[in-house]
């Protein structure tokens, strides 16, 4: 269980049986009445963003999410192949499951796969990737 004092941007919580990620939070202490925490939450399944207010000290559930280290191997027929780095099992994910993360995948890159109740939710890309620029337009004088 998480308390509202534990809220941080990027924290994953569970509300009404659904996993959410905290996008923004603001602790408010009005002059009159009790303190509260105003949050913006993103549903990890649908991508829907909603605003919710919690009373200070309120408890929220911790979702059953775990991360697994996997390596992106290749893309074939609209499916992306990933290999578990521990067991060497391969799984295939559709482009819809990866959302915009698929645009930044490079072969043989290690990624973290987020799994919620034995269902793959999303992947976390590495913070830094080394790429090589093959071609660029010539610079125009004055730019």
Q: Secondary structure elements and their pairing?
A:
Elements: E1 2-3, E2 12-15, E3 18-28, E4 36-43, E5 49-55, E6 59-60, E7 65-76, E8 79-84, E9 90-94, H1 95-98, E10 110-116, E11 119-124
Antiparallel strand pairs: 1-6, 2-3, 3-4, 4-5, 7-8, 7-10, 8-9, 10-11
Could you state the CATH homologous superfamily of the largest domain? Nucleic acid-binding proteins
Helix content: under 10%
- Domains, number: 2
Low-confidence stretches: none
Count all strands and give the number: 11
CATH class value of the largest domain: Mainly Beta
Query: What proportion of the residues form beta strands (DSSP E)?
Result: over 45%
CA-based gyration radius: 20 Å
Q: Classify the fold: give the CATH topology of the largest domain.
A: OB fold (Dihydrolipoamide Acetyltransferase, E2P)
CATH architecture of the largest domain: Beta Barrel
**C-alpha end-to-end distance:** 54 Å
Find the structural class using helix and strand composition.
mainly beta
Q: What letter string, H or E per element, gives the SSE order?
A: EEEEEEEEEHEE
The strand line-up of the biggest sheet is 9-8-7-10-11
Overall mean confidence score, pLDDT:
90
Global morphology: flat
- Main sheet? 5 strands, antiparallel
Number of helices: 1
């Amino acid at each position: 269980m998480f308390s509202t004092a534990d809220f941080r941007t990027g924290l994953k919580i569970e509300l009404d049986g659904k996993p959410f990620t905290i996008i923004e939070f603001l602790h408010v202490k009005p002059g009159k009445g009790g303190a509260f925490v105003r949050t913006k939450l993103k549903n990890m399944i649908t991508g829907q963003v909603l605003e919710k207010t919690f009373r200070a000290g309120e408890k929220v559930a911790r979702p059953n999410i775990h991360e697994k280290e996997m390596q992106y191997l290749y893309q074939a027929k609209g499916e992306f192949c990933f290999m578990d780095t521990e067991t060497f099992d391969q799984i295939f994910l559709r482009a819809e499951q990866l959302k915009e993360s698929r645009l930044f995948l490079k072969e043989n890159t290690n990624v973290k796969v987020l799994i919620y109740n034995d269902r793959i939710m999303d992947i976390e890309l590495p913070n830094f990737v080394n790429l090589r620029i093959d071609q660029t337009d010539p610079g125009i004088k004055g730019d």
